[in-house]
């Protein structure tokens, strides 16, 4: 394999770069495409290094890879602990986290989150529900409005649903929702978070950092074909949250 890479290295480089350009044209600058591009650049650079001459560099790279591998396993294990969260506790507020819309149409992931919340909301009609999500590129309305419209279509009373329509990240979801709750006069709320299974651990962690008294969760299923890339992306997002 090593000899093959050395002999055919330039061809492999060109194929990888061509694939990256095609992926970029077809799917744009999404996480999976950019990760492929980053790995392509790393491969092109690393295969050109003479590790017999640069022993110190080799040791540094091995150390970095080792730390990365160990941290990946630990963080993914933490993410897995919340994949099937379905807490029955009574909460002061339900917070449903946004996940993108196209125009005014819910993404599959967002619809799954909203559907996962329905049983709890119907069983707790007096519990306020905060739908949290701002307006991004390609979105004709804020995610929060699309989310509220969907819940109302499912029979949820409009007065039960509160919109937080400024946030653009999970950290902002939690901070801006907390501000709404604080303004309502509740200083240490217990919340029920509804989000995708792979996203639950980080959501609870950021909720705790934002001063909620307790963080319960209902994990919505996520598409199986997107699970691997979502789990990889979550690794980097959790590292960022910890930092």
Automatic annotation (TrEMBL):
What the entry lists under Pfam families is as follows: DUF218
Keywords tagged on the record: Membrane, Transmembrane, Transmembrane helix
Where would I find the DUF218 domain in this sequence? 92-236
Residues making up the signal peptide according to the UniProt record: none
Q: Write down the superkingdom of origin.
A: Bacteria
Q: InterPro entries recorded for this chain?
A: Cell_Envelope_Assoc (IPR051599), DUF218 (IPR003848), Rossmann-like_a/b/a_fold (IPR014729)
- GO cellular component labels: plasma membrane
Q: Which residues cross the membrane?
A: 9-27, 33-49, 61-80
CDD domains from the UniProt entry: YdcF-like
Choose any GO biological process term that the UniProt entry carries and state it. peptidoglycan metabolic process
- What is this protein called in UniProt? DUF218 domain-containing protein
